């Protein structure tokens, strides 16, 4: 009897596996798509504002329309390929990283002669006569929800050998946006209606000669092969602390001393600041999960009508500070969050009826800066939820989050059967059949959301 049942359940799992794989492959597309921010994109707008004897002057602006994904220091780099033999005579508010071969120009030398220039933002403190509006923030581009006033970045470019009418100008090709690593994919430039500008006194409207837009979207799958954060759980009703899954972001290789640094290492100072260490190579603290960031969710208190959670974000990277960090958390009780202490909060509703997702970020000048690993390398807050009698329960891990993103990247959750249980309940998670299916579904959603 038992063997019959087990073979039937195996058959069912197999059929479900086939079904899940099939639906995965039908939903998976090469377009980047984030289910919680379906229209999230960075739009690059290229406005030709005047013609010159041999080309034009354009203002290029990047708008970050992503709800919760930003670009932090060391900032963006933007590249493209010229369609003809264009050169950049001069720039304001930005510069190319390489000049290239300008040897055929005598006297007046262009700023850049490369066929595929790469532009970076200028640093704060650039002299005013080299600035334009929205420039000079070291390439930092904040997210649309967190800081809309700082979610755009501009530079001005004077292009030569380019054509001087809207019929002879060719739009550049192959835009590449890096943050500064990979992750973004940019579509082709689309010529559209010329932008209208309102003068400062609001009494006159001017118009660009030509305008084209490029849309870039992000995919975590393209950005890195390993996750960058993980989630650990605990509760007042069970002493067990469910730590991040072992090897969630990589494995601690004891024989390879370069892979991480131990907290107590006497060589720490030299390991962190030693010559030849780029500030971008992680100096990870050795942990079982090897994630640069851990989010801990502690179910702290149970009141009659409310319950309280403490969230702690810990940085395990000795070589990286996170400015303007953010979390996206999915939990059914976010439809009725009553109070939040020392974080900012905004509900995210990508679809009508979806009200279980929230974005959390730090208070300006208080905890919006997550310090490098060490005693200061954590931020925390408490959330107070109002119980809804029809859904609230401490059973079956209901009080724990369903999904967490840190800075827009999905965090690795512990397996559902490891969640802390209520003591003295007969409850055992139904893992035999349900769990592999849930895992498959979760990975399907993950693939679907990121490919
Ligand atoms: C980019 O984002 C803006 C603002 O959310 C949206 O209006 C636009 O449709 C998006 N573009 C694409 C191509 O998704
Ligand atoms: C060029 O400008 C003319 C006059 O403004 C306009 O009619 C035409 O559609 C433009 N062509 C292109 C390719 O933008
Ligand atoms: C643009 O990129 C594609 C694919 O990487 C390449 O095949 C093509 O030659 C590039 N075009 C230009 C103008 O560089
Ligand atoms: C380009 O993008 C900007 C910002 O989203 C938008 O206002 C403008 O209408 C777009 N123009 C074209 C030609 O698509
Ligand atoms: C650990 O690192 C050493 C040296 O880099 C390497 O030879 C070995 O294969 C690694 N082991 C694992 C399990 O990754
Ligand atoms: C992180 O910030 C602290 C305090 O502002 C600073 O002392 C430290 O050098 C920064 N670390 C890195 C890697 O930038
Ligand atoms: C949240 O969504 C659920 C399901 O769509 C709905 O039943 C509930 O009333 C919503 N709650 C709020 C506060 O909108
Ligand atoms: C939150 O829950 C309380 C009690 O269940 C209810 O009265 C209130 O309307 C809810 N608020 C929202 C925004 O759903
Ligand atoms: C706490 O939860 C763990 C599962 O994570 C379980 O093994 C343990 O028995 C629970 N403790 C109590 C006292 O129920």
UniProtKB/TrEMBL annotation:
GO biological process per UniProt: cellulose microfibril organization; plant-type cell wall cellulose biosynthetic process
Domain of life: Eukaryota
Keywords: Glycoprotein, GPI-anchor, Lipoprotein, Membrane, Signal, Transmembrane, Transmembrane helix
Name recorded for this polypeptide: COBRA-like protein
Domain COBRA C-terminal: 228-420
Membrane topology, as annotated: Lipid-anchor; GPI-anchor
Position of the signal peptide: 1-32
Main location: membrane
UniProt-annotated location(s): Cell membrane
Family: Belongs to the COBRA family.
UniProt keyword annotation of Transmembrane present: yes
């Amino acid at each position: 009897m038992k063997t019959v049942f087990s073979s039937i359940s195996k058959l069912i799992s197999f059929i479900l596996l086939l079904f899940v794989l099939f639906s995965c492959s039908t939903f998976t597309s090469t377009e980047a798509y984030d289910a919680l921010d379906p229209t999230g994109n960075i739009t690059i707008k290229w406005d030709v504002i005047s013609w010159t004897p041999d080309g034009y002057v354009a203002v290029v602006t990047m708008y970050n329309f992503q709800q919760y994904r930003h670009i932090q220091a060391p900032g963006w780099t933007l590249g493209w390929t010229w369609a003809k033999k264009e050169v950049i005579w001069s720039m304001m508010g930005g510069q190319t990283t390489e000049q290239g071969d300008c040897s055929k120009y005598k006297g007046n030398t262009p700023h850049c002669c490369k066929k595929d220039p790469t532009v970076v933002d200028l640093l704060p403190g650039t002299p005013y006569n080299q600035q334009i509006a929205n420039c000079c923030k070291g390439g930092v581009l904040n997210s649309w929800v967190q800081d809309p006033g700082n979610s755009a970045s501009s530079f001005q470019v004077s292009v030569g050998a380019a054509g001087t009418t809207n019929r002879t100008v060719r739009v550049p090709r192959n835009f590449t946006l890096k943050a500064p690593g990979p992750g973004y994919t940019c579509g082709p430039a689309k010529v559209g209606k010329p932008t209208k500008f309102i003068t400062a006194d609001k009494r006159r409207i001017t118009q660009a000669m030509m305008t084209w837009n490029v849309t870039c979207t992000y995919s975590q799958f393209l950005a890195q092969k390993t996750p960058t954060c993980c989630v650990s759980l605990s509760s007042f009703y069970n002493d067990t602390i469910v730590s991040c899954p072992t090897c969630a972001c990589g494995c601690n290789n004891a024989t390879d001393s370069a892979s991480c640094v131990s907290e107590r290492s006497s060589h720490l100072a030299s390991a962190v600041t030693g010559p030849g260490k780029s500030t971008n190579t992680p100096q990870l603290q050795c942990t079982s999960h090897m994630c640069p960031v851990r989010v801990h969710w502690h179910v702290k208190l149970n009141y009659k009508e409310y319950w309280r959670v403490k969230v702690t974000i810990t940085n395990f990277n000795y070589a990286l500070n996170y400015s303007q960090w953010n979390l996206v958390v999915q939990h059914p009780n976010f439809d009725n969050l009553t109070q939040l202490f020392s974080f900012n909060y905004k509900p995210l509703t990508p679809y009508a009826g979806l009200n279980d997702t929230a974005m959390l970020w730090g208070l300006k000048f208080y905890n919006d800066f997550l310090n490098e690993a060490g005693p200061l390398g954590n931020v925390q807050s408490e959330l107070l939820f109002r119980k809804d009698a029809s859904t609230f329960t401490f059973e079956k891990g209901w009080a724990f989050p369903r999904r967490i993103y840190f800075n827009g990247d999905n965090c690795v959750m512990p397996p559902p059967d490891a969640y802390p249980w209520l003591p003295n309940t007969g409850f055992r998670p139904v893992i035999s059949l349900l769990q592999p299916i849930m895992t498959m579904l979760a990975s399907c959603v993950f693939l679907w959301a990121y490919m």
